[in-house]
User: Fold Rhamnulokinase from Salinibacillus kushneri.
Amino acid sequence: MKKVWAFDLGASNGRLMLSKFSGDHLEIEEVHRFKNEPVFLTSHYYWDILKIFDEMKTGILKSVKQGHGDISSVAVDTWGVDFGLLTKQGEILGNPFSYRDSQTFRGINLVLQKLSANEWFGISGVEPAPINTICQLAAIQERNPELLEQANSLLLTPNLVSYLFSGVKANEFTISTTTSMLNIEQRTWDEELLDTFQIPKGIMAPVVEPGTVLGPTLESINQELNINPVPVIAGAGHDTACALAALPLKDDHSAFMSCGTWILLGVQVKEPVITKQSLEWGFTNEGTMDGDYRLLKNSMGLWLIQQCKKVWEKEGSGISYTEEAAFVKEAKPFQSFINPDLDVFLNPIDMVKKIQNVCQETHQSVPETKGEILRVILESLALKYRWVIERMEQLTGKRIHVINMGGGGIQNEWLCQFTANATQRQVVAGPIEVSSIGNSIGQLLALGEINNLAEARSLVASSFTTTTYEPENPGEWQQAYERFTDLIKQGRNHL
Assistant:
């Protein structure tokens, strides 16, 4: 039996999963889970990379104590766009900034002063957005150029952590496609783009293909954790690329949804779709584990609910998941809608008030109770996913029949059922730990245990259960969608 460690780091929590592969069955087990949230300090949001790495080592220690010292490899996947900087000596230059930091809004303005949206999209295939890596770098170059002057290497988040384990500097392809700095045709860093924004070309660690074996764990790591050297693999570094690899899609008429803090909704394509229409609609092209592309839309996900629950907790009226579901059921449907991808929802101080203000500004009923707030969010999310799917069908010329949803967000059954209702398409939900499973698949491919992704998806289908949701109440949801699309037309300020 082959065992691998899969570190799946999300924008709200991280986990170490132990995967066991018997040849015809894959089993995955959570070893360690920990919170991972941006830390607000000196007017900026940072990732606490030292805490993250310490928690990862804690996970390894737990796994070893449980008798799993015979590990064949380890790999890391994370959210996109963020990065860490290293000195010439290989030391970290401070905690990495979070993509939710306000400097990114200044950054996108700086980028657009020198590069049109059409040029930007044509080079990278990535939707121009404040969260993109290049915006953060442009802001740093203006505000704190000394930081880049001191930097010797830039490593994207999963590759930064892999470096801390292996000492090898490399940026993996799927995570590199999220930066807006990778030339989508040449699949290398666009040097002209880097020169335009005075980003030192030498700091960009080389791009490697998914499945590249970086090397064994450092001797210092082995001694600290009392482990034998473990091969560190640069698997698909982006969690959505991992999720896509693990979702049991039946054919090319299936869409994928990676559901968590963000919802990434798209289809796999052989070539990037770089057109005026895909740019206008806010689509992006990112890499897949097998070298293709994900045509997708980055849409807001359960972040909206997470932030509302934080507000209620601070007020002393926090709610459980069971109460959340009950509140949604009790609330009257289709009272008000929001465009969940408005920039104002990216990181407000009070999400509840922000949602209420947007409803008031758009002359709708203002939600007051927890159930009303939750219902506004969930219905709006589902309706926005229909909007995305209809435009994705136009871009690809293919009808979507089934939506495969995976990730922690599918535990919200209302989200799954509302998505089926709003899109009037069958939803197949599962597995939950889809990114971790995809991470494991990438390692097994690199180790030669699995031949290809088609074989991997069959393995997932036979190893994990799914739940099917059929669409309901088509008439009511059609009327709601017509109201929602009218609301969308009132403002184009989307991510």
